[in-house]
Design goal:
With 216 residues, the protein is mainly α. Helix content is 69%, strand content 2%. Strands 1-2 form a two-stranded parallel sheet.
Length: 216
């Protein structure tokens, strides 16, 4: 048991954060008597609704865990980087949502068509409120997953993995706007935060510097 603990104990901080994130987000989603700031940009009105993008939107729920899972077993150094990247962004998102409650009014009142994709979008809208939007975690975590792929020597060396990750990342980012889950503002905020965190985690390698100083 001790051998397995020493080998896999690096999952503990992420697991603890995951519990905190889910509880915190649940409380945010179920607040009452809240005055919301409406998130909107003029360009949002020109982005058409396209229900087919619900597919890459839902693939996000497999994409990010798959990258993290691979790094967890294969690349401890980049697992730590990716975990710090993701958790820091999600923590900032929670703080922003706590002190700047926000909402969007982009969703359609009625679906223009009836098919399996519009049904999926309708079900998604029923389970996910149009509140607590920026920065878009779908966008931010997709960037984080792709950055992790590109910084892993094995994965970045496989052309099909590199291109597949990029295509999926871009598709997920576009999906947030085409199925009216997010405003362009949320996407831009995610890109800005992603750029700052990329510099912090990968360029300046604060995780590696911390481990060097502490010997962990």
């Amino acid at each position: 048991m001790k051998r397995y603990y020493e080998k896999y104990k690096h999952i503990i901080p992420l697991a603890i954060f995951g519990v905190i994130y889910v509880l915190w987000f649940y409380l945010l989603e179920h607040r009452t008597n809240v005055q919301y700031m409406v998130v909107h940009m003029n360009i949002d009105d020109y982005i058409p609704f396209c229900e087919y993008f619900v597919v890459p939107y839902l693939l996000w729920f497999a994409y990010v865990p798959a990258v993290l899972g691979y790094l967890f077993f294969k690349d401890r150094r980049n697992y730590d980087r990716c975990a710090v990247f993701l958790c820091t962004g999600m923590l900032i998102f929670l703080v922003i949502s706590t002190f700047i409650p926000n909402i969007q009014h982009l969703r359609l009142h009625t679906m223009p068509r009836h098919n399996v994709f519009t049904v999926l979008v309708s079900q998604l809208w029923q389970t996910d409120t149009p509140t607590n939007l920026f920065p878009s975690i779908h966008v931010y975590n997709s960037l984080g997953a792709h950055f992790a792929v590109m910084n892993n020597e094995t994965l970045s060396g496989k052309k099909w993995v590199r291109r597949g990750s990029l295509i999926l990342c871009v598709s997920i980012i576009l999906s947030t706007m085409f199925i009216k889950q997010h405003s362009m503002f949320d996407v831009l905020m995610a890109f800005i935060m992603g750029a700052v965190m990329y510099a912090t985690v990968y360029y300046y390698d604060v995780v590696g510097a911390y481990r060097f100083q502490t010997g962990k």
